[in-house]
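Hey, I was hoping to borrow your eyes for a little while. For a while now I've been wondering how a particular protein folds. The fold is given in discrete form, as structure tokens running alongside the sequence. Could you read through the record and tell me how the tokens relate to the sequence? Take your time with it, there's no hurry, and the full record follows here:
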Amino acid sequence: MLFGQLNADIFTLFSGSNRHLYELVLVKIYEDFFRSDLHFPTQSEIVGLVYTRLGDHADLWREDEAPVVLDQVVARRGRRMRRRRIETADAQATNEAMVRARHIYNRLIATGWLEETRYGLKVTVDMPPGAMRLAEFLCALREGMSEQLGGLVVQVKNQLDALQINARDNALGLHKAARDAASFGRYLRSVLSALREIDKQVLASDSIGRRLRHYFEDFVERVLLQDYATITTTSHPYRYRHRIFASLDAIEDSLPDIGALADAYFEARLAKDIPAARDVVFDDLAKIRRVFERIEEAFERIQQHRSRLETRLRNTVRYAGRRSGSFLQRSEPLLLQLDRLHANTPPGLDVTGLIEPRQGPLSPFLLARPRNARAPVVGGMLVLPKTDPLRELRKRLEREYLERLAMTPEQVNRFLERRVPPFGETHANNFWLDSVDDFLAFEALRLAVASSGNLAEDVHPLVAHLHRAFVFTRTRNTQVDNAWLSCIGFSVLRRNDRVTPEGIHAG
């Protein structure tokens, strides 16, 4: 059971206001003493390490959050510590840090993260197995989701190849290969989860600056350049996918190999008897096969999210300059005010400054002079080029394409009449999109509702045209997510039961 191996109060360290301080201290203790070294620290060494971390991160425990200089301490045998005084050190802060360090040590002992062990007269500090595994998980979670799993697929392939050479001696490699395959599956899931999280943060951004920061800091640097580059280069599963399936088929079809693997599993105490060991062998083979059979769907989802984020990034940069706060719109009132001031200037008043006098745009001195004499204009036959049918077809297709993209208010009105019942209200998430025309009408409506403000003069022209028949309400707590797009939701209320004739829609 989980709580049979962990102290009942082990999670209370992270339930208070000092959880960041306890996290910092606990991770440092585990990394320095228990993660990779067979070191048995004493109480003074643990307290000294906690004291040092308090001096480096005074902002986590001092009220003024100001940096502080503490006296140096040297750990001695047992619980004794020797202090080396520094002239620039703060004596009051040193005493407070020492008290806090001993208090933190006692809290770690009381909550089951650490335990004291006595060997004769020597007392050392150790970490219980359950707490050690939990600390390892916290360290891995703290280091981030971009795990470096390069070469993991190659390891799975090599372990399966070794089983075909000598199944009994390399039997435990199959168990490790199953764990590695499961780790790779979790890694793909973490990449997909990171893309979904970035997608949510981008949609929740209220400004272009924050949206671009999420794009470049989270998507480009953290996912695209690290996780996505890893799974598409050294850890790409398609490199050895066929060989892994061939090795699995060969092992499953070989009864001697299955028997040797079951015997080795039973000797390693992975099962209670030979039939149970055989079931564990087939279970490990099935785990590897399931992971590499389902990675195609995971890759398709990752590609879809990546393409969607790249398209949104491109559209964000493309339409960033079309916002209402452009330079020309901001400078227009200033220029009009300067013209009014210039027109109301009294005669004879000379204003010194950088304003130049008004000059006409045309002048005989501004015209370009011809280098040679102009040739006389003579009459003649005008030969028109032959019409190219491919060029005419291209022009017609381009014209039809542009006309299809330009949604008229009548088309949007017809689209809403088919989706919203008379005198009823429908959320945008319930709008079905059957064709590209439906998507274009919904996109035009979404942009119009999103750009409309609360003031009467800030309403989009399309919303103002449809206001006689429909009322639009933005709902920021809901979201529209379908096969066509994902955006912030809104609802539409229909005022009447009028239906636009098809002839008006076609015009």
Notes: The chain has a mean pLDDT of 77. Strands lie at 72-75, 81-84, 115-119, 122-126, 425-427, 470-481, 486-494. The two ends are 72 Å apart (CA to CA).
